[in-house]
Design goal:
heterodimer; A: mainly alpha; 4 helices; about 0% strand; B: 2 domains; globular
């Protein structure tokens, strides 16, 4: 039962609803149900945040190290370097996201144009 | 509680809904939109149709989950594995909703309103809401957040449409730059919204374990990196708590 496994126009949408919408909104609905009943500092929620954060971080690593499209044609050291310099700039600027984004982009685009 | 005579904001539900809509013109919204541009490019490259990409944006409305879904589909995983990976990446929404609900709820708020509004909770609208909700009179907070959430969803459905259609025609340097926006957005927004040090440990572990698992167990690398990295970070959290009880 893969995304392209069933040749019907509705299958990709059903796939997105089950694997995407249901898998996501269930957590939101659980949050409403629990809201006011448990503290957001409770141990279960700390664990949940840890697992989800590690998983998203793994996604970030793959988006940088093994990207698709035009980013795949840039040198891996340039991509990783741009991300690291951008993150360092974000921290140095007092956690300002826009600084991190702009610096990373500048390093990447500069590197491509110079290389 | 009902604000009294503040700076003369409209004391109607529709008025506060409109004020919520206005949050779409803000720096966080701009950064979010730019990472949806990256998502449109990613999904287009992966072979998703325009309608599917817009449908994902509206129904999932959590960029990490959407990227995980695209990645798992590319890896050729079946429905169950994809759903599990998306569910693990979206589990962080529960604690966010748990902390937001008491802020939104007024005395007479009906539960279905909160369930409906919870769909809008994702990193950006949550950060905006936690930051500004105190400035909204309690009776109008659900209307206001409805404006914040729905405007962000609609903006990004439009953004995704425009850039899906143009992604192929962009110069390579530009589209490479667009594809870097999303990981940078995740890196910085995860670090900004991390509540406890353990989340930051989890982030570093995930960054390292992701590529390691991708080499060792391709196909299930996200699941394993998430579970192993998360469990290790939580173990660290418990150890810290035992060493320095607070």
């Amino acid at each position: 039962m893969t995304f392209t496994g069933i040749e019907a126009w509705w299958w990709p949408f059903l796939f997105i609803l089950v694997a995407g919408w249901l898998a996501t909104d269930s957590w939101r609905f659980l949050g409403v149900f629990l809201g006011g009943r448990i503290s957001e500092d409770s141990e279960v929620l700390v664990f949940v945040r840890c697992v989800a954060t590690a998983l998203v971080a793994a996604v970030v690593a793959s988006l940088i190290l093994t990207p698709g499209g035009a980013l795949a044609d840039t040198p891996i050291l340039l991509r990783a370097g741009a991300a690291m310099v951008g993150f360092a700039a974000y921290l140095a600027a007092g956690k300002r996201m826009i600084v991190g984004l702009l610096v990373a982009e500048a390093v990447l685009v500069g590197g491509v144009l110079l290389g | 509680m009902s604000g009294g005579a503040a700076a003369g904001p409209p004391e109607s539900h529709f008025g506060w809904y409109l004020r919520g809509l206005r949050e779409v013109v803000s720096l966080p919204a701009l950064i979010l939109a730019s990472s949806f541009v990256g998502f449109a490019a990613l999904a287009q490259g992966a072979g998703f149709t325009l309608v599917q990409v817009v449908f994902m944006t509206a129904t999932i409305w959590a960029l990490p989950g959407m990227v995980v879904l695209v990645g798992a589909v590319i890896a050729g995983n079946g429905l169950f594995v994809v759903a599990l990976a998306v569910a693990l990446s979206s589990a962080r929404l529960t604690p966010m909703v748990v902390s937001l609900v008491p802020e939104l709820k007024a005395e007479r708020t009906r539960p279905w309103v909160l369930y409906l509004l919870s769909h809008f909770v994702a990193v950006t609208s949550w950060v905006v809401a936690m930051h500004k909700v105190q400035t909204v009179p309690r009776d109008f907070r659900t209307s206001w957040y409805g404006g914040v959430g729905s405007s962000l969803v609609m903006l990004n459905m439009a953004v995704v449409t425009v850039f899906y259609l143009t992604a192929r025609d962009l110069p390579p340097v530009l589209s490479a730059g667009l594809l870097l926006l999303m990981p940078m957005y995740f890196l910085t927004s995860l670090w900004t919204s991390a509540r406890e040090a353990a989340s930051k440990v989890a982030m570093v572990l995930g960054l390292v374990l992701g590529p390691v698992c991708a080499a060792l167990v391709p196909g299930f690398s996200l699941l394993i990196a998430g579970l192993a990295g998360g469990a290790a970070a939580y173990a660290w959290h418990r150890l810290q708590a035992r060493r320095a009880p607070t």
